[in-house]
Structures are given as structure tokens and as C-alpha cells.
Write a structure and sequence with these properties.
This protein has 498 residues and is of the alpha+beta class. The chain has 16 helices and 23 strands. α1 links the parallel β1 and β2. α4 packs antiparallel against α5. The C terminus is likely disordered.
């Protein structure tokens, strides 16, 4: 049985995993770089280890340091969270080499699914639809050009390894094919150490739909329905919801079965996600498999009542799942917004600095997953996500109303955030109508600018006056809606992230 888990991550996901462990009576070890020494996950863990230099390669991506930290604290398992080393097969293998349980799938599965070409070929064998394209081993430019012409235009050039839009090019004309292939190869080599690419037909106006899966060590695999992840910026999700507004029961059953076949074909164990692209005719194609817990897992938890983080621990302990596919009965509609310290008006560039004040919305079926507190800094070393706001409604319309309400009561001062941008997306008529594709932001928010009104200064002055009238005690002062002096009672579209 697992008795102590080292959480090899930071921020909100580290807090999430530590709390899941604590609920099951499992001791925890946090790791931190020098800029994260006062982070919430470090404070709430039973023990912690200083990794020193905040540079990712010297801290959260340093496999020997992480393994040494686990061994020094007698941790018998490591949870990688998401990002950093979560999908690194060498890390999973290194854990096994020293008899530390890696809470995730086997190293060979991570390696197979990390190689996009191999993954798609495995999916073909499992009768899971893949986007037509070239997934062969020949990587010389002339071969790729000929294969591209056979596929037709527009097409996509994609890096075999990695993700996040790096090494990805859209080619609309054969004259641009050579330059796009060579550019994608250079970018892939620089980002992932692997310059190989593959080609696929470009789907116009697609949706990004993923299915959550759970698999135990006894051959049992289930899916927990879909998540709609089409609202993206720079190929990164910012709003997710479940169920998808385009989904039918017939399509859900078909795609869910395909996701289970995909997991079974590769010998998957633990929590994972099978991602699909769905075209305008509702034809679906395998995109990739994420061999970890997803950022957006809370919305699945909200409608199914299944605690994915706890089930990761149970499965790692060898427990047989007692949930059947028939037991999965989602209820209501859930939505998540990722709160980033970034400037949507300036290419979504990260915004660093100290968080002077953070107020989280609180109410029925409102969940906040955060890993930062007042006085902490958003640094340039890591992803600038401040937290995740999750709401659950009776239906999609109710969920949208609740999210609008919650975003209006989410305040972060000292740094600029994407909250105003998220509010306008949620309130957009096309979004309300479920008319969503991966090009939603390009189609509707290409020239979006933040609205700055004179009330900004008034609100900040009110906050300063309020703080002077209410000196901070040891506990954090929470503003209440019933307080007539609270600046959060002010109406209007004043901006909170400056």
C-alpha cells in the first residue's frame, strides 16, 4: 500500500493532489524551487524538499533531483500532476528503477502515445478513426512534399513528438509546402529534440472533443463521457465544458466506445484522456492520447461525482474498479475557465508581478482550484495560470449564467489577467448558442480590446480606503457582499487586472 506520495509539480495541481492524498490518509511530500518556497502546496504538505534554482531544467524537470527528493523522504510513490514530467517515459521508468510507484500509466505506454505517428498507427489497428494523412517513417522533404500533394490542401504539418501547437503549420497552397515542412522540422527539433513530422488533412471549423477514461490493472476500462475543449488560444484550451452542446447519445456511445478501444489497444492503466477532432458533419477522428490527469478534470468530477485524483491513487494501489460503464450517470452541466496572468490584447503574453489581492467567487456549485495567494509572485519561469474556476449548473444555460456571475466576482489585483476576456466569451451569443469551433476566437475576437473605464481608479481608491479601515489580521479578510463599503459591490465594467 502507498503510504507517502511525492507530488512532482507545483501550483494548483500540486494542491489538488496533496489534498486527495490527505483525504485518503496518505502522507505527502512537496517539492519547490526557490521562487515557490511560500506556495500553498508547500505549506499544506507533510514534508517538503527544496529543489533550488527555479529554472525548470534545474527544478521541476530535473529527474535525478526529483528521484533523490523522493528517496530522501522515503516516499514510495510519485504523482507527476500535469505538465513538466507527467508525460515523460524516462521519468516513469526512473521511478520504477528505484521501486517507487509512478502514479500513471506504464512508461512504454507514455512513450508510444507520445510518438504521434506510432499512436495513430496503433489507433488504425484498433479500428479508431484517424484523420487521413501521411504517418510514415520516411522523413526526407521530397517524400513529404509528394505525400502532401496526394493528401490535398489545406493540410497540417505536425511534429511527431510534443504538442501545444509547436512544430505545427497550416499549409493552404502547394507553393508553401516545402518551407512549412522545413520550418516545422526545425521548430520540432528545437522544442522536443525530435525533428520528425507527419501530415494530415486540415479539418475546417472542427470541434475538439475529448473523453475521460479510467483503467485499472485488472483489465477494466470505462469512459466518463466527453468534454468540449474547442475554445482555445494558440492551440491551448481556456474554456472547457461537459457535456458538449453538439453531442447526441448515439455519437457519445460511438466515441466513448472508440476511446475505450484506444485505451485497451495500448494497455492503458490509470486516468487518461482520448482526444478527437470532430468535423461539421459529426465525423470524428483520433487526435492524441494524454497519458495523465488533465487540467480540466474537475468538470468531469462535477457531473459524474467520480473523484479522479482519488481513483488514480486507488488504481496505483492495485485496487479493482467498482465502477462499471452503466454506473456513469452524469448529472447537470459543468464549465471551467482557466484564469491566466496574461494580456489578451497583446498576443496573450504572460504578465508577471506580485498578486496584491485575490478574491475568489464563492457559492453553491462553484469550485476554485488555485495555487497562488496574496503576496506571491507570478514569475517568468513557469506557466502563468493563476487558477481554475469551475461551476456546475442544472443545464448549459444555467451553467453559463453561473459562470458569468462567478467571473464578475473573481478579483485579482497587481497583475493583469484574462478575466475580462473570459467574461466576454461566455456572454457572446455564438457561445451561448453552442456554435463553437477551434476557430472561435479567430472568428469572433480577432480584434478584441479590453474596455477600460474611469471607475478603475475609483475602485482601487475604495479598496485602499477599505484596507486602511480594516487592518489585516492573521487570517485573510474576506469581503462580503453585504458589506456596504466593499468595492466589489460597485457595478460597472471596471477592470481589476492592471
Amino acid at each position: 500500500m502507498i503510504e507517502k506520495v511525492l507530488v512532482a509539480n507545483r501550483g494548483e495541481i500540486a494542491v489538488r493532489i496533496i489534498k486527495a492524498c490527505q483525504e485518503r490518509g496518505i502522507k505527502t511530500v512537496a517539492v519547490y524551487s526557490e521562487v515557490d518556497k511560500n506556495a500553498p502546496n508547500v505549506r499544506i504538505a507533510d514534508e517538503s524538499v527544496d529543489l533550488g534554482d527555479p529554472t525548470p531544467s534545474e527544478s521541476y524537470l530535473n529527474i535525478p533531483k526529483i528521484i533523490d527528493a523522493a528517496m530522501s523522504k522515503d516516499a514510495d510513490a510519485i504523482h507527476p500532476g500535469y505538465g513538466f514530467l507527467a508525460e515523460n517515459p524516462d521519468f516513469a521508468k526512473s521511478c520504477g528503477d528505484v521501486d517507487i510507484k509512478f502514479i500513471g500509466p506504464p512508461a512504454e505506454v507514455i512513450a508510444d502515445m507520445g510518438n504521434k505517428i506510432k499512436a495513430k498507427n496503433l489507433m488504425k489497428e484498433a479500428d479508431v478513426p484517424v484523420i487521413p494523412g501521411y504517418h510514415g517513417s520516411k522523413q526526407d522533404t521530397d517524400t513529404l512534399i509528394e505525400e502532401g500533394k496526394n493528401i490535398g490542401f489545406p493540410l497540417m504539418v505536425k511534429a511527431t513528438s510534443g504538442g501545444g501547437g509547436k512544430g505545427m503549420k497550416i499549409v493552404r497552397d502547394k507553393e508553401d509546402l516545402r518551407d512549412s515542412i522545413e520550418s516545422a522540422k526545425r521548430e520540432a527539433l528545437s522544442s522536443f529534440g525530435d525533428g520528425s513530422v507527419f501530415l494530415e488533412r486540415y479539418l475546417d471549423q472542427p470541434r475538439h472533443i475529448e473523453f475521460q477514461i479510467l483503467a485499472d490493472e485488472h483489465g477494466n476500462i470505462i469512459h466518463l463521457n466527453e468534454r468540449e475543449c474547442s475554445i482555445q488560444r494558440r492551440h491551448q484550451k481556456i474554456i472547457e465544458e461537459t457535456p458538449s452542446p453538439m453531442m447526441t447519445e448515439e455519437l457519445r456511445e460511438e466515441m466513448g466506445s472508440a476511446a475505450v478501444r484506444a485505451a485497451d489497444a495500448v494497455g492503458y492503466v490509470n486516468a487518461g484522456t482520448v482526444e478527437f477532432m470532430v468535423d461539421s458533419e459529426h465525423k470524428y477522428y483520433f487526435l492524441e492520447m494524454n497519458t495523465r490527469l488533465q487540467v480540466e478534470h474537475p468538470i468531469t468530477e462535477a457531473i459524474t461525482g467520480v473523484d479522479l485524483a482519488k481513483w488514480q491513487l486507488r488504481i496505483a494501489n492495485g485496487k479493482k474498479m467498482d465502477i462499471s460503464q452503466e454506473d456513469v450517470r452524469p448529472n447537470g452541466h459543468a464549465m471551467e475557465c482557466r484564469i491566466y496572468a496574461e494580456d489578451p490584447t497583446n498576443g496573450f503574453l504572460p504578465c508577471t508581478g506580485e498578486v496584491n489581492k485575490i478574491e475568489l467567487p464563492r457559492g453553491p456549485n462553484v469550485r476554485n482550484d488555485v495555487g497562488i495567494e496574496e503576496g506571491m509572485e507570478v514569475t517568468p519561469y513557469y506557466d502563468p495560470m493563476v487558477g481554475k474556476l469551475i461551476v456546475k449548473g442544472e443545464n448549459r444555460a444555467d451553467s453559463i449564467e453561473k459562470m458569468c456571475w462567478a467571473l464578475s466576482r473573481y478579483a485579482v489585483l497587481g497583475i493583469k489577467t484574462n478575466i475580462p476576456f473570459l467574461k466576454e466569451i461566455i456572454a457572446h451569443e455564438a457561445f451561448k448558442g453552442g456554435d463553437i469551433t477551434t476557430h472561435f476566437l479567430e472568428d469572433h475576437f480577432q480584434d478584441w480590446t479590453d474596455v477600460k473605464e474611469e471607475l478603475d481608479l475609483d475602485a482601487l481608491i475604495a479598496l485602499a480606503v477599505y484596507d486602511s479601515m480594516h487592518p489585516k489580521r492573521k487570517e485573510v479578510v474576506r469581503y462580503k457582499e453585504s458589506d456596504p463599503h466593499s468595492p466589489w459591490r460597485s457595478s460597472g465594467r471596471w477592470r481589476i487586472g492592471v
